[in-house]
Amino acid sequence: MPTTDTIFCVAYSGRWMVQSLSDAGIPSRCVDWFADADASPHAKAIRLASWPELLVPIERFRPRGVILGGGFESILPLAERLGTVVTLANTAVPSARRVTDPLELAAAARARGIGFPATSRSRPQASLGEWLSKQARRGGGQHVRRCSREGGEDENRFFQQFIDGESCSASFLGRPDRALFLGACRQILGREDWGARGEFQFCGAVGPIALDSQLQVELQRIGDFLVAEYRLQGLFGFDFVIDRAGQVWLVEVNPRPTSSMECLERASGVNLLAAHLAEFIPDLVPSPAAVVNGKRPRCSVVAKGILYQPIPRAVRINDDLISWLQHCQQHCLIADIPELGSMVSAGSPLVTCFASADNESKAVAALEHQVREVAARLAEGQ
Question: Which of 200, 187, 212, 219 is nearest to 115 (CA)?
């Protein structure tokens, strides 16, 4: 039996989820791979060195429930085991397993007339155009690379035709009878000047982006298909590409809260994690009003960028950098602040930067400035 009403937010990085629940008055604790200084306002974050370690704090603290964020789809066997000892506030594991199987998703989407790139377990022939090599059930984009024509098959990878266009994501709240559309974001990928080490590595997002009526109808159709076919529950998102002709191509589905949703939450003033939790453990959400976040000003567009540590060696986080980051944090410009004295290796996430404006281009320009300033401060102290 649970011994506390605390919700554990478990992810590669869980700070946003804890912050969202905290703003709604719901006690929560972060369990992730970084344990950043701002990750848990109620109790010190728990840092994981491996996913199986998650069982230890769950059994020790016996939380009321667990929300699995980034990384959920990569630990489905462990999630199934967790579901026997604690309430999982997530889409059921069998549904998550099906929707993250690229071949099954491709077949089901095409059967309903939804655009989906050619997808195969076998290495494509050179005459079939440009392809990507991916790992199933992996997030962050580090695993995605352009496909070479040589080499044998790898049972852990699959191949997907590359669609040239705008990479975006759509966010939904899955309910038993429908998918509630929350908004769409444009993805920021592969920024080498932000420390990214791959062309498709996730570096952030900007949103909500403006959508014409035809595009919004198509995104809603895809969301409704996913809820009906896979019984997705609570927050989920999917990545899509808009090609040069304006066609929408579904690329993959994330059956859990996603990083881009923080942009939509900051822009709308809606506590998305509280809305998510209400679908699973409604008595923990104090009232419908708790879903409305009055603690943060609303704005038209929010841009979010991850700065990966750009110096080609591990750096120590010193007092001067922490003081400046905390000052920026007070103005909602910085999050995911490392602990004082911690070592951050080259290429690891350093901090997350934010900017807001009345349109997308201004928000992205302000974000660019913010990321450059953090990088410069880091270099000064080394």
Answer: 219
Query: What is the mean pLDDT of each successive set of 10 residues along the chain, which is 382 residues long?
Result: 81 94 90 90 85 93 95 95 94 97 97 96 73 85 77 71 96 94 96 92 96 96 98 97 96 97 93 94 75 58 95 88 84 87 91 95 95 88 62
CA distance 187 to 240: 10
What local confidence, expressed as pLDDT, does residue 239 receive?
Answer: 97
38 closest CA partner among 63, 18, 57:
18
pLDDT at 340: 87
Contact assessment for residue 170 and residue 238, using Cβ atoms and an 8 Å cutoff:
yes
The predicted model scores a pTM of 0.92
Report in angstroms the alpha-carbon separations of 112 from 62, 106, 215, 222.
Answer: 43, 10, 17, 9
Domains of the chain in start order, with CATH, are 7-96 (3.40.50.20), 98-255 (3.30.470.20), 301-380 (3.90.1170)
How many CB atoms lie under 10 A from the CB of residue 210?
Answer: 12
Say if CB 9 and CB 28 are below 8 A apart.
yes
Q: How many of the other CB atoms lie within 10 Å of CB of 74? A: 16
| Selection from 234, 221, 242 nearest residue 169 by Cα | 242
Residue 125 DSSP one-character state: P
CA distance 77 to 55: 13
Distance, CA of 87 to CA of 282 (rounded, Å)? 12
Spatial neighbors of 329 by CB under 8 A, at least 6 apart, are 38, 335, 337
Widest distance between CA atoms in the chain: 60
CA atoms within 13 A on the CB side of 336: 26
Please tell me the predicted confidence (pLDDT) of residue 294.
46
Q: Is residue 178 within 8 Å of residue 276, measured between CB atoms?
A: no
Give every CB contact of residue 208 below 8 A, 6+ residues apart in sequence: 183, 184, 185, 263, 264, 267, 268, 301
CA dihedral 349, 355, 359, 365 (to 10 degrees): -70
Q: Whose CA is closest to 14, among 82, 73, 72?
A: 72
Q: Which of 73, 86, 75 is nearest to 48 (CA)?
A: 75
